Amino acid sequence: MAEHSITDDCRREIEALHRFFVAWFHGTAPDDDATWQRFDAVMAPDFGLVSPSGSHQERDELLSGLRALHGCRPPEQGFAIWIENYACRRVAGDVILATYEEWQRIDGIERGRLSSAVFERHAAAPHGVRWMHVHETWLPKGEASDSP
Fold it and tell me: Which helix (H) or strand (E) element contains residue 19?
């Protein structure tokens, strides 16, 4: 297997997780424990998310809420997520700070979030890193909503 830099590992993880979200929300990914394990495995035990509205969710609450949203946006609705402007901001030992824009299209409307994510190296994770913390802020064209 080819070696990747930690910067590449974080980018690959960000892109892969968001592809997973699209498949999960579309309902094209199986709604079973084996499929869900991919998401569960990359979230650190003390993971936390600060949404664009400023609310904070701990790992278990976030995972429970997202698991219940399987199939909430069928493909025919045109829902999409894509990542732009990824940057690795700092590597300090096994901890990495990255930023990226997460763009979503929902009901024909595009909106974006600027996300800061803290990762840690974790050999058992699919891309060698797992998420520790995410803080999201609406980009100027975005509309204030925390829905997926």
Answer: helix 6-26
pTM score over 0.85: yes
- For residues 60 and 54, give the distance between their C-alpha atoms in angstroms, rounded to a whole number: 18
Average pLDDT, the chain: 92
Quote the pLDDT of residue 83.
Answer: 97
Question: Of the candidates 65, 52, 28, 57, which has an alpha carbon nearest to the alpha carbon of residue 104?
Answer: 52
May I ask the CATH class of domain 6-138?
Answer: alpha beta
CA 26 – CA 128 distance, rounded (Å): 27
Q: Write the DSSP assignment of 57-103 as a string of letters.
A: EEHHHHHHHHHTTTTSS-GGGT-EEEEEEEEEEEEETTEEEEEEEEE
